[in-house]
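Marked as duplicate of an earlier ticket. Keeping the data here for the record.
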Amino acid sequence: MRLSLRWEIVPKDMRKPNRSGNCGPHMPMKDKTGSVDFEFDEYAYLENHPDVLASVRNGLFASGRQHFERFGHKEGRRCHAIVSEAPRVFVVGAYGTRNVGDEAIFEGARRIHANAIQLYINAPRKFPAVEMYSMLRDGNKFRAGDTLVIGGGGLLYDAGAIGILVDLARRARSAGAAVRVERIGCEAARPEYHDVIAGLFRLADSVTVRSSISQQIVRDICGMDVERQEDFALELAGELPPRPERSAGVPRIGLVTGGDHMEEIGPLMNLVREFTSDRAPTPVRFVHIPHSVSHVDFRNNDEVVGAKIASGINGFLEGRHLAFSRQPFTDEPLEVLRTYAGLDGLITRRFHGLVFAHMMQLPVLGLPGDGAKNTSFIEDHPREDQLAIEAMPQIGEGFAALMRLLQA
């Protein structure tokens, strides 16, 4: 087979959007001042073409721009340039990594910063959105009057991640944009890179944190007294689905695990096996709820944990699978909260499992997995029906206490 290649010279007037909003096959596109705003309007392209968005999220294309350059321009797809001079708010966090807790943070931030542009890491979930690393390439894309919000979550987990935030903040400041650190969690901050964190906070016009532990850490690092505000996810509290009245039937207990903490699987498997047995004194129906199916780390995949637990219990008793079900992953926070609404109690190792249970007023047992993060939330939001264990061997005792709460 012989392939024939043909090169075409494209007239200059085809390299710009035409009246219908279609673009020729060549870029970049510039605003009226000649400075590059976004060479390609990624979020508008994906918003206008949901089939392309699905392909990007499934890994068939690295970006909407890649699709456009390969196929979209031949198909006459719309790729609007951004020419608005209005000030913009960019919110950066661990978004686009398929973690519903991080997406809940962004949804809460959008309730405060209307029309905020999400700076995502791997794949956008909501629009408007811009790939975060594109803001660090090809010149400064911030403008005077813009605001960069470093928004919530436990973002300070390693020096490299903080360094990226510092680079974004420096670019924003050099362009005349404001920088605000809002409701951030410092619980995972390590002493060896406290100086990098201090540098980030010095670039900010204002700083707030989400926990009392974070307040103390900022005080130790920078000598700053900062305000504590609730985690952004709690801004969704006004949109919660209703919880049905509790029935006298078999209780439904949610399990929120961590894919990167495989040491939990054995104790959890034993617990589920014991309480789904025909001989269990108090039968329980367990529902595994994945919070993360990570783009970033294959080990951080809660669906793998759910499958391992199911594999470990289903061979022991015919029909036991009816007492252990697995929810499919979704990164839509309100959909996950609808699942929570149908529960009687929760066991969680994830921080936002505690946050969601608090919003839904569910009795909850916190596992030790997230350490200071979980401790910080429990200390700042004390409730009689919010329990915690310090080590996995205590899970039987902790679960017994949770069941007593449900039976009270």
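See parent ticket for discussion. Residues 12-72 form one domain.
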